[in-house]
Every structure is written in structure tokens, then in C-alpha cells.
Amino acid sequence: MFWYHASTKHSYNSVRTNPNRIAWENQPNTYKNYPESYKKYKLNLEVVEDNFLYHIAGLTAKKTYPSGEYYLRINPSAGALYPNELYFQMRGVEGKKDGIYHYEVRSASLTLLQSINEDEGLEPYLGFNRAMRGYLFLVSAVYYRSSWKYKNRAFRYCLLDAGHLLGSIEAAALLKPHVVQMLYNINREKLNRMFGFEGREWFLAGASMAVPIKNTEVEAIEFALPYVDASRSFEQNEIIEQAYSETMNLEACKRQIKAPKFTYNTTKLQETLFHRRSQRGFHEGAITKGQFNYILEMIEQPILSDCDEKVNVYVVVNRVLDMPLGLYKDGAYVKYGDFAQKAGYLSLEQYSLSQQGAAAFFLTSKAKNYQALYQKAGIIGQRLYVAAQYMQIGCSGIGAYYDDEVNDFLGNDEMVLYALAIGK
Ligand SMILES: Cc1cc2nc3c(=O)[nH]c(=O)nc-3n(C[C@H](O)[C@H](O)[C@H](O)COP(=O)(O)O)c2cc1C
């Protein structure tokens, strides 16, 4: 097991002996804004391309607390800390100037960072030697936004949240409709340097919603952007930095070239994405077997990717009409029984989610490429949110669980990556 994963497990004792002390005065900023000297384009939701981009990471709800107000987004995030930033190259997109952009969440605008021409671009850094028409996305993490609160375990959440953002790209692309390929074999070192991240932000993955243009080879573009602060406060975390640098280069990757098939109605999907929220607790409502099977079918679709790692999905069925209670894997029983309370306990005693929900999910893996396998778990999580909410069923991600006890319950010794619950 990857040492970082083993050293960031939660246990019944660890959460009691190491309670997280949070330095509120250091709370990081969750928005990155390039200076006004850059050219910025405000998104116009009447324009198809702008609308598509908004459905990946736009703001969709405002919460007001005595301490101030903050916004929730299309994509979920552990603790609403939003460590990820979204960049992309557009080439040949209708009404848009070819170039490399940053998606500015706070103002819903695009910042042009670098223009490109026909024979140069980001393509070679993402594994393409021909010019790609469409979008090439890059997802980064500003890790302190998450480590401020979650300390060493935050690298896991940076990866899960990045997976959710990749899943958001995949879902928004269905509105056009297009397929998206995930790219983990990207030149992180070079890209991090060119984007001026200075170790406080790093790229985790790319995604392509683009097609090669015939007979057009491209050169790798060279540029050097200045550092732009993205968190206000910062504290170095050596464990996280080491975990990142040891997982930067991928090995023995297998491609997934089989495209997923989704059966969403576009209008209803758009509403689902726009209104997606995490449910704060379930009320022991049941779902039907038809709903359950539909949701499973959506999350089990292949994920197009240049490094597809195996992630196992276990499900504890608590309240699915006409389905026996028990633990399932790949649609087959692992064991019969009422494990609702157990699932609630394992999710760090978040009983209102995993016990009172209709079903609780645990995702595990023993694969090797940590950045790829962890982000895949996040993509599956995003698919679960979308499929459940499309059926008017609630969903919540659960990043905190008792790792070793989950293994004992499942009967495996894989890395436990993520838990989620769905229900009513
Ligand atoms: C990786 C991840 C882990 C999460 N873990 C928990 C959790 O343990 N408990 C919980 O109540 N919510 C959890 N959530 C839900 C977040 O709190 C929620 O996404 C965030 O507050 C934003 O709200 P929204 O999803 O309604 O937009 C998690 C979400 C993600 C993406």
C-alpha cells in the first residue's frame, strides 16, 4: 500500500487523540483571480459554449452565516473548500479566440492567459502530437485550501475533488453532446513550471473534449506565467508534497477506449446539474430496485482514459425495495444481513448518511497509479451524484471513514478511497 495512504488512515482512536485544530485566522481564499491586466471574458449563459463551461464549475447557491456569505458550486467539494482550479486550451471553438484560459469561478469569466497559433499548443504535454480542435482541460489543486483543515489527509481530498471536477466536465459535455477522455499522463513538471505555480499549486489531470485536426502536427508551446496567489494564506506540508512528487509519473498505464453510454435527457440533465446539492441527512426513505439498477448502470459505464486503474465498488443495501439487505460487489452478494448501522459507524459515525440512507457505497483499489486511481474514485462519485439526483434521490460524498475497519467489514486489504451514500 502507498505509504501516504497508510499514514493518513482514520481510526476510532486517531480521530479522538488527534482532533483537528483549525486556525480560523489562516482560512485560505477559495478563489484564484488573475490581475485585471489580463484580458477577461464574462460568460454569457445564452451562448452555448459559455453555458457549457458554467455547468462544469459555476456558482449555484449562496449560503449566509453570521461569519459571512459563501457560495456553493456545480461541483461538490470536501468541506466546501474547493482546492481545484480549472484551466483549458480552446482551439477552433465557435466564437472564441484560440488560446489558453483560466476559469475564474468567482466572476464567472474566462481569463486569457496565453494565445496560441495553428502549429503550437498544449497538445504535446497531454500526449497528443496533432492539433486538437475543441477543449483540452487541466485540473490543478491549490493544496493548502484543503490541508488548512484536513491536514495530511488533504491530498486524498484534493484528488477526490479533482475527480468530481473531471466528472463535472464529463457530465457538462453530455449537454452538447460530447464524450470526454481523462488524461493522467500529462507532463506535470513542465506544466507546473510554465504556469508559475511555485509549488503551491500543481496539476493533477487533464481531460480532452477535442478531435485531432488532419495533417496538423503541433509543437509544444513554451511560456512562463508569473505566480499568482490562489489561497491568501499558506503553510507548507511536506508529507503532501512528497506524496504528490512520488506520484507525478505514471507507470504501466492501460487505456480505456470504450466509450460510456448514458441515457440522460438533455433538458432534465441540465436541471439536475444546476440543482445538484449534497443531502445533509436521510430520513430512512426507500428507493426502488429500478432506480437502484439505473444508478448502478450509470456509474459502471467505462471511463475513457489514458490510464484506467481498477476501482472496486461495494454497496451496502439498506432500503431498496425488493432487494435483500446485505453487502454487494459488482451486483453480486458478498454477505447477507442488515449492515445499516455498521455502515453508519464506519463512515465516522455519520449515521444520518450511511445508516439512514437507502444504500452506502465504499470504493477501494489496490492499483498502482495513485493520482489516476484516486481521481477515478472521484469521477465515479460525481456520476453517483448525477445519476441519483436525476432520479430525485439524494446523495452525499463521505471522505471520512475508519479505513481499517472498512477493510475488515469488506473482507479485503485494498486502499479505501471514498464512501458515499444515497437515499431519501
Ligand atoms: C470528497 C468529498 C467528501 C465529502 N465528505 C463529506 C462528509 O464526510 N460528510 C458530509 O456531510 N459531507 C461530505 N461531503 C459533501 C460536502 O460537504 C459538500 O459537497 C460541500 O459542502 C458543498 O455542498 P454541495 O455538495 O451541496 O454543493 C463531501 C464531498 C466530497 C466531494
Describe this structure as you would to a colleague.
- It is a single chain.
- This protein has 424 residues and is of the alpha+beta class.
- The chain has 2 domains: 3-246, NADH Oxidase, CATH 3.40.109; 266-423, NADH Oxidase.
- It has 13 helices and 17 strands.
- It has helices at 3-7, 14-17, 48-57, 144-150, 154-173, 188-194, 238-246, 266-275, 289-299, 340-346, 351-354, 370-390, 403-410; strands spanning 39-42, 59-65, 68-73, 84-91, 99-104, 109-115, 120-121, 130-142, 181-183, 201-217, 219-220, 312-317, 326-329, 332-336, 359-365, 394-398, 415-423.
- The strands form 4 sheets. It has a 7-stranded antiparallel sheet with strand order 1-6-5-4-8-10-9. It has a 6-stranded antiparallel sheet with strand order 14-13-12-15-17-16, sandwiched between helices. It has a two-stranded antiparallel ribbon with strand order 2-3.
- A hairpin with a 2-residue loop joins strand 2 (59-65) and strand 3 (68-73).
- The longest helix has 21 residues, at 370-390.
- Bound molecules: flavin mononucleotide (FMN).
Could you tell me how far the N terminus lies from the C terminus, measured between alpha carbons in angstroms? Answer: 36 Å
- Could you name the ranges where pLDDT drops below 50 across 5 or more consecutive residues? none
Radius of gyration: 21 Å
Number of domains: 2
Helix content: 25-40%
The major β-sheet equals: 7 strands, antiparallel
The CATH topology of the largest domain is NADH Oxidase
Count of beta strands: 17
Within CATH, the superfamily of the largest domain carries the name: NADH Oxidase
Structural class: alpha+beta
What's the number of helices? 13
Mean of residue pLDDT values: 97
User: Mind telling me the CATH class of the largest domain?
Assistant: Alpha Beta
- Which shape, going by the Cα principal axes? globular
Could you state the oligomeric state of the chains shown?
single chain
Q: Which ligands, by name, code or SMILES, are bound?
A: flavin mononucleotide
Based on the coordinates given, report the CATH architecture of the largest domain.
Answer: 3-Layer(aba) Sandwich
